[in-house]
Write a structure and sequence with these properties.
Layout: E1 2-11, E2 14-24, E3 29-33, H1 40-47, E4 55-60, E5 63-64, E6 78-81, H2 93-97, H3 99-104, H4 110-119, H5 121-124, H6 136-150, E7 154-157, H7 166-178, E8 185-190, E9 202-207, E10 210-214
Parallel strand pairs: 3-8, 3-9, 6-7, 7-8
Antiparallel strand pairs: 1-2, 1-4, 4-5, 9-10
């Protein structure tokens, strides 16, 4: 579903990614593990079209989207959960979840929304509450719901467990693990694989902007 080939990305003239490559086959959950500053978020943002690569290629379902704008991803079934959630505080939970749908001009898939609420009933209870009123962990769940409303083929989850209380981290693990039955591809990043060890089928380690593949058991 996702294939990234020798990606080079610089920010303000400073190289961040250096020939970074990885692939996430259909139905696979992959982990991108690296310390803070290793390039995880830069990689995710580049794949989503939020940063323009200086070299390399990004293919989604064999389509080269390297030079295409960010908004083409959602109609292709790609959802993104940024590390800092990026919710709109004044919007309700449901308004935040549906934001990618409205932004692309697509009709609301009520069956998909119901599936998300069934998967995470805790946010269904808060559907009409303003995002600002939720805890950080609850906001993470809403951000995951927003990614899922369009991400029925590929999910990019940037540090989904960062800054979350242990109980909510465990809840996120359960929810992400439950997506395996949906047949979608997932790429999640983490500073280590303490939380994701039982979730991932493929493991990639990023260090100083370079990515190497490891066996999931070897990390």
């Amino acid at each position: 579903m996702l294939e990234v080939r020798t990606l080079d990305v610089a920010i303000a003239g400073t190289p961040i990614l250096r020939g970074a490559s990885l692939d996430v086959p259909p139905g696979t959950t992959a982990g991108l593990i690296g310390r803070n500053g290793a390039g995880k978020t830069t990689f995710m943002r580049a794949v989503m079209g939020l940063l323009r690569p200086e070299g390399g290629a990004i293919l989604l379902d064999e389509r080269d989207v390297t030079a295409e704008p960010a908004h083409v991803r959602a109609p292709m079934g790609v959802g993104y959960m940024p590390e800092d959630r990026r919710l709109i505080p004044e919007f309700s939970v449901e308004e935040n979840i549906l934001l990618p749908v409205h932004a692309t001009g697509a009709g609301v898939d009520r069956a998909r929304l119901t599936m998300i609420y069934d998967l995470m009933p805790e946010i269904a209870r808060f559907a009409d509450r303003k995002a600002l009123a939720l805890s950080g962990g609850q906001q993470k769940l809403v951000a995951l719901g927003r990614a899922l409303i369009v991400g029925h083929r590929l999910l990019l989850l940037d540090e989904p467990f960062e800054g979350v209380a242990p109980a909510l981290a465990q809840r996120l693990i359960e929810v992400i693990g439950g997506l395996r039955g949906e047949g979608m591809s997932v790429l999640l990043s983490e500073s280590d694989h303490v939380h994701s060890a039982d979730l991932i089928d493929e493991l990639f380690v990023i260090e100083r902007g370079e990515i190497t593949r490891r066996t999931a058991q070897a990390a």
